[in-house]
Amino acid sequence: MNFAAAGTVFKKELTDGIRDKRAVMTAMVFPILGPLMIYFMFNALIDLRKDLAEIELAVIGRENAPAMVDWLTQRGVELTDVSVDPKQAVSNKTHDMVLVIPADFQQRFAQSRSAVVELVNDGSRTDARNAVGRIRNLISSYGRQIGALRLVSRGVSPEITQAVIVQNIEVASKQQIAARILNVIPMYIVLAAFVCGMGLAVDSTAGERERATLEALLINPVQRTQIVIGKWLAASLFAAVGILLTLFLCFFTLQRVPLEEIGLSFTLGGGQIVGMLAAVFPLAFMATGMQLLLGIFAKSFKDAQSYIGILVLIPVLPGIIGTLYPIQGKAWMNLVPALGQHILLMDVVGGKAPAIWNFVVTGIMALLVALVCVRLTAHLFRRERIIFSR
To answer: How far apart (Å, rounded) are the C-alpha atoms in residues 19 and 204?
Structure first.
């Protein structure tokens, strides 16, 4: 097969793509917007975690439990005395929660009975859920300490109430834990493979068909396969550049996110960057191959975007599933394009070193899908009913 014609088509499509503002915007804006979104999102998460260190708590009846109040204050809780209807105050969002300490608290305490306090809160408010949970845990911890002291005062070991003690031994590194929190980054890099080359892939099929320039190209004495390969490689190059830009901007962004403030760390070495590129680059060829195939069926650029919009769900699903139900990598998953790449990226980001055959298998499967799509597209290029229909 003579690839000179494919090279000519490649240069032509690449030149047209660079001149096409729509294709360039698709390839360049997506990698820029994503890291910015990640930066602000994770900084907001870190600020939320830091805010939990100092919680404001409205209290009614502070004088009824001075020891517990002091204990909460020592742990960063800022207490404010209020004299309001607690339910009304929480419903009106005047306060996130109100701690009500009854007048008989000290009496029940002195009698070694259970002293009941009320933590009035609104369970439908997601913004206050973490703070409410922390206050509840702090009060429960205080209660356990007092219970242990009561046992000691009676000559009974507190251990008698703890038949089994669980010691949590964490084997995951801080980077691996951070990788789970940063699950959105591998998903976004995989998504870049499907988005960044989409503009050129759609324009070189549905766009040219809509402008009636595709027929002029097909009149030339060139094999249809050569034409499709040229278009495919040009769109794949756009996708590859988008992946590179996305990866390096994400790396640049994460260096400026203070993860250490929440006890995590994240670094990307040269080997990890190479591993991530090796994992995701084959997807650029698969994505553009699928987009060319769908684009040839569309009668207009707008129709093609609608079809390919569904295709973008492919790289998103593994990330969503991995967030809701953590995925344990299995050998067969390497045979599923996008899923295999997502797992590889998660391992690399977490500091693990996947076996070389994992990269080989996932890459081969993605390229096989790409070649099948290119072959089918070339076959459809020979069908006048599809090319010339309006």
So the answer is: 13
